[in-house]
Amino acid sequence: MKTVIDAHNIKKIYNPETVPVVAVNNVHLHLERGEFTALVGPSGSGKTTLLNLIGGLDKPDNGSVIINGVDITRLSANKLIDFRLHNIGFVFQSFNLIPVLSARENVELIMQLQHVKKAEINVRVTSLFRQIGLEDKMDVRPAQLSGGQQQRIAVARALASRPQFILADEPTANLDTKSADNLLDIMAKLNKEENMTFIFSTHDQRVIERARRVVTLVDGQIHTDSSPVSVHADYPVTA
């Protein structure tokens, strides 16, 4: 398998001038294409910070994050934005949909930023809404959707840019069991059929049970790291 992410000796300290908090402490992590990995640990263990460092939403105080051979810690702000736009899809706990836009427009926006042609955008949007089972909700605004539906729209938005991998921060935290299972089914299917790489930050046992690799963080350091299961291994997919 090909290494997609190589986080080497990364460290992140918050409030260094007042009351220093070491959120991530000299972490080494290698992730390969097609992994379905969960970052777990108690609150304050550093899992969300690690996810943000991997995704370039935050910058480490030490170390490097290399994605497909590019050290994103050395990119300028503008080049980092462009790199994220074309390589990384984000799914947030709070959905982060734009309330004044329809579901369709929320998904289209990232492709417009990529300057994808309108005809191709229409094809992708139709396909994505079919995959998430919300073809009848394309022109509905987020406030008119359930939490589970909004999170599925957020997944479609993350996929719209055709990223190398998806980073999902507590994606099931606000969902009921049925909605969470449906969302995980969609992600697992994409992982299996399209070899898409997923990295989760989560407390949710439902996500942990689906993961084929579980990295446990304690006090900003990797405490345990289960061996990745083959990306071709079978696991439940019902979507």
Briefly say what this structure is:
The chain is of the alpha/beta class and 239 residues long.
Can you walk through the features of this model?
- The chain has a six-stranded mixed sheet, with helices on both faces.
- It has helices at 47-54, 77-87, 103-113, 118-131, 147-160, 177-194, 205-210; strands at residues 3-14, 21-32, 36-40, 62-67, 70-71, 88-91, 165-169, 197-201, 213-218, 221-225.
- By secondary structure, the chain is an alpha/beta fold.
Number of domains: 1
Name given to the CATH architecture: 3-Layer(aba) Sandwich
**What is the fold-level CATH name, i.e. the topology?**
Rossmann fold
Percent of residues in helices: 25-40%
Strand content: 25-35%
Order of neighbouring strands in the sheet with most strands = 6-7-8-3-9-10
Sheet/helix structural class: alpha/beta
Which overall shape is indicated by the principal axes computed on the Cα atoms?
globular
Strands, count: 10
Mean pLDDT: 88
Q: Low-confidence runs (pLDDT<50, min 5 residues)? A: 230-239
N-to-C SSE series? Answer: EEEHEEHEHHHEHEHEE
- In CATH's first tier, which class applies? Alpha Beta
Fourth-tier CATH superfamily name: P-loop containing nucleotide triphosphate hydrolases
Biggest sheet statistics: 6 strands, mixed
Cα separation of the termini:
26 Å
Radius of gyration: 18 Å
Number of helices: 7
